Hints:
Structural class: alpha/beta
Strand content: 5-15%
Number of helices: 10
Order of helices and strands: EEHHHHEHEHEHEHEHEH
Distance between the termini: 6 Å
Amino acid sequence: MRYELVIFDWDGTLMDSIARIVSSMQTAALDVGWGALDAAAVRNIVGLGLPEAIAELCPGITAGQAEALKERYAWYFVTGNAVTGSEADMRWYPGVEQGLVQLAATPGMRLAVATGKSRKGLNRAFREHSIEPLFAASRTADETRSKPNPQMLEELLVELEVPVERAVMVGDTEYDMAMAAALGMDGIAVSYGVHSRERLQACRPVVMADDFQAVMDALLSRGS
């Protein structure tokens, strides 16, 4: 087994929540008077911490307006009222739920989460899906510096006492791959999330996975 620690991004990597994120942010921006946000622009910031995402989406926004946008986005995301029908539901990508159980049960391997979600948001997701026991540790963007800064990965390595060469970051954005690369950590990029295959390939991941089964194959089959 090459990797002792597998660190997962959440939205766009484990959970298919992109439609809800985009709709919630677009509706919140209209509520606070900022105006319409392009869906592609919102997709691009998925993975960043919420303050960093708002600053990127809304250059020149005032502190008060940014705080209002943050609160409205969180409300829509939690209630799902910004979207209707199937888009309101958040689901595991195919194979994720069973795959995480298998990986967590693999001798010598531990799992962690490094996400742009807030601690409150990640804990809510853990509770809703009864999945927290599978992860040895987690870091959120409001506890440390937002991606692509590698601080959350550094903290996980220290907490779990794993050398960087025995860890891998799995994510769907160049932010995930950039923070791993900053530490010399391997990255597995998934092409089914928000950033294009071309953008991810430019980050030189050790594996490009088109579905979660390919992630599993890479983690369980790579030589030492």
